[in-house]
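User: Can you predict the 3D structure for this chain?
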Amino acid sequence: MLVFLLAIWFSVLKAQTNTIEIVLVDTLAYTHFGLKQMSHKNYPPSHLFDSNAKTCWVSAFNDRSVTKPLYIRVPDISSDSMIINIFSGYGKSESLYNKNSRPKEIQLTYYYAYLRDGHVSENAYQCEACQLPIKQIISLKDTFGVQRFQLLYDTNNFAEHQKRILENRSIYNNNVIDTFLLVKLEIMDVWEGDKYKDDICISEIYFNDCYMSHIENSNYEIKRVYLNAEENELLIEKEDTTVAVYTDKASVLQNIQLSDDRKWAILIAMPAERAGRTETSYLVVDIAAKKVINQELTHYFSGYHLGDPIFLEECNGEVFLIYDMTNNETGKIKLRHLRY
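Assistant: Here is the predicted structure, written as structure tokens:
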């Protein structure tokens, strides 16, 4: 047992001595990425983070043997576990998905990264990264859609690595302005396309710092969101039609928050027939997808119980869901729509 622990310790120390410099682009709303060489200008890695399954990144183009490793900053995540979601292949249509190659196996290499003051420009920054001791291989099914994988590092053991590396390098007071987990994504094997065999595509990547709802790529405008006269049905007015988004005949509903884009709402539901003390429930409504997402939120917030108070917050065009967790901390996730 002692030999095993010493082996792990020495592997950690060895990883800490190998520091690499990586430039990350910081002009995107979702997360930051780094790529030393782009395969094709029409299929850039920014397509991975645009909430649109109809766009893709091509990691290799006309030469499958030369795939480019991609570095992705893992966002701060409220829950204990870290999840990566991958839409493998070209998501524009199932026909194009089958024609192009897509990853079968991906290797994830983890880094503890830190940013020093003065290493930031208008649209990018240069970080220093220390490789962590574990690599991970994820196997993807040949499936048109999003696949979900748990990362080997959770927020707790990453914090332990962070403290150890910072102490070992004595950089606490050496102009460090930010620290974060970085993952290097490398394609190791592919599902071969029927036609474009050398083009390896991925359409979307996101983590569990956001709730991603899947909707059809429609351009209609939601003109109005309102409750009916009986206050038991949430309606939307679009173009020349009115559509019911949520109905609960046993409750009285109150619409307390609506996002600026009219795609998310917070409702309070109270029993229509009240007897004694009345319990209220907070409902999060995905208006674009016409569903309540409270059940799904249990995977994002530690200690969340169905109906607990929950609120919307908006910043720079992004919509966030805010929840007070049991450890007296505030959980926060982005609300996004993946367009098909």
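The domain at 2-208 is CATH 2.60.120 (Jelly Rolls). The radius of gyration is 23 Å.
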